[in-house]
Amino acid sequence: MTSASKPEVDHPTGPAPTDLHIRDITVGDGAEATPGAKVTVHYLGVEFDSGEEFDSSWGRGESIEFPLRGLIKGWQMGIPGMKVGGRRELIVPPHLAYGPAGSGHRLSGQTLIFVIDLLGVG
């Protein structure tokens, strides 16, 4: 399956959510991701506060495959139920991402926005 083009993320207004926010941009019609599944995705990550991109598989020119259980909690909770061919936006608060400020990761304390295209489920 070829992936759609790299998404654009509109800079959000208002306060960052304190809970995981899940919004389907496109609903897929392929296999459904389940908790603990191995997924192949294209994704874009943007900081909620600044709107700055911090990571993008599109920027590297290739999708990535990994088991959900090895990812941040926001992805473990936000990808299951998604179907191959879909595009989903996740807004992930710090406690479901890289923890509170000072936790040692450069994104700790940040609310993060991800746009994820689900390309495959293994």
Automatic annotation (TrEMBL):
Catalytic activity line of the entry: [protein]-peptidylproline (omega=180) = [protein]-peptidylproline (omega=0)
Assigned keywords, A-Z: Isomerase, Rotamase
Phosphoprotein listed as a keyword: no
Keyword field contains Isomerase: yes
Source domain of life: Bacteria
One MF term in the entry's GO annotations: peptidyl-prolyl cis-trans isomerase activity
Signal peptide stretch: none
Protein name: Peptidyl-prolyl cis-trans isomerase
Residue span(s) of domain PPIase FKBP-type: 36-122
EC id: 5.2.1.8
Protein species of origin: Nakamurella alba
Chain segments carrying region Disordered: 1-22
Pfam families documented for this protein: FKBP_C
Top EC class of this enzyme: isomerase
Family: Belongs to the FKBP-type PPIase family.
Organismal lineage: Bacteria, Bacillati, Actinomycetota, Actinomycetes, Nakamurellales
